[in-house]
Design a protein that fits this description.
Number of helices of chain A: 5
Order of helices and strands of chain A: HHHHH
CATH topology of chain A: Fumarate Reductase Cytochrome B subunit
Distance between the termini of chain A: 14 Å
Radius of gyration of chain A: 18 Å
Order of helices and strands of chain B: EEH
Number of strands of chain B: 2
Number of helices of chain B: 1
Strand content of chain A: under 5%
Helix content of chain A: 55-70%
Oligomer: heterodimer
CATH superfamily of chain A: Transmembrane di-heme cytochromes, Chain C
Number of domains of chain A: 1
Shape of chain A: elongated
Structural class of chain B: alpha+beta
Structural class of chain A: mainly alpha
Strand order of the largest sheet of chain B: 1-2
Shape of chain B: rod-shaped
Largest sheet of chain B: 2 strands, antiparallel
Number of strands of chain A: 0
Chain lengths: 178, 47
């Protein structure tokens, strides 16, 4: 695994994206699951507003990674499986975490964007009949599965980021360099 | 344990409402199992 070695590992804009996304995902998970766990509060407003923040952040990241960053640095290739071979910017474990968590967040974002049709906002009125009840069911199932996967993956991501031997990566995500 | 929640539409047909929230402790449990498993692996590897 390549540890940061003094140079800039993450540009400021990427660090900002990471922490905005992290805050948004944590707020979304709390507003989704705390009421289910018995802590009742008015969560819908916080949830959909934070959801829009996450949609914007993910759209920004997709555009930036497609047009301004190297997709190759995230690609999983045969080199990732050769023992002793120097890995690129990211280890296989980091790439896998990014791809699996990215898939969960993307699924939650797409289904959440559809669900925005069911809430009244200053910009549009709710239209619960936009999709059939059966289709809404599929959207809710996918949104729920993505959210549950995010719970598991966020727990694992935070655990690994706090390990002493991975501290350099956490510092790089805070300060840009080791 | 149920995996899905169901409700009825205006015609009385059964439709999916979402996943069952019984799965929330499962998701947390899987996360904890990975964390505890890895922590134990670290301890054993150090010995």
């Amino acid at each position: 695994m390549s540890a940061p070695s003094g140079g800039i590992r993450h540009a400021g804009i990427d660090r900002l994206f990471h922490w905005v996304t992290a805050a948004a995902v944590l707020i979304l998970l709390c507003t989704a699951f705390l009421p289910i766990a018995g802590l009742h509060f008015s969560w819908v407003g916080i949830h959909w507003i934070t959801g829009i923040v996450l949609i914007v952040a993910v759209a920004f990241h997709l555009l930036r990674s497609l047009f301004w960053q190297s997709l190759r640095s995230m690609w999983i290739g045969s080199g990732d499986f050769r023992s002793g071979a120097p890995s690129g910017k990211y280890s296989l474990a980091q790439k896998l975490m990014h791809h699996v968590l990215g898939l969960a967040v993307l699924t939650a974002v797409v289904t959440g964007a559809l669900m925005l049709a069911k809430v009244d906002t200053p910009w549009w009125h709710r239209n619960p009949y936009w999709l059939s009840a059966g289709t809404w069911g599929v959207v809710y199932v996918l949104h729920g599965l993505a959210a549950l996967a995010a719970v598991t993956l966020v727990m694992i991501h935070i655990y690994f980021s706090l390990l002493p031997e991975k501290r350099a990566f956490l510092r790089a995500m805070l300060r840009g360099h080791e | 344990m149920h995996f899905l929640r169901f409700t009825h539409n205006v015609w009385g047909q059964e439709v999916m409402e979402g996943i069952s929230w019984d799965l929330l402790p499962v998701a947390i449990g899987i996360g904890l199992a990975v964390i505890v498993g890895h922590a134990l692996y670290r301890v054993v590897r150090k010995k």
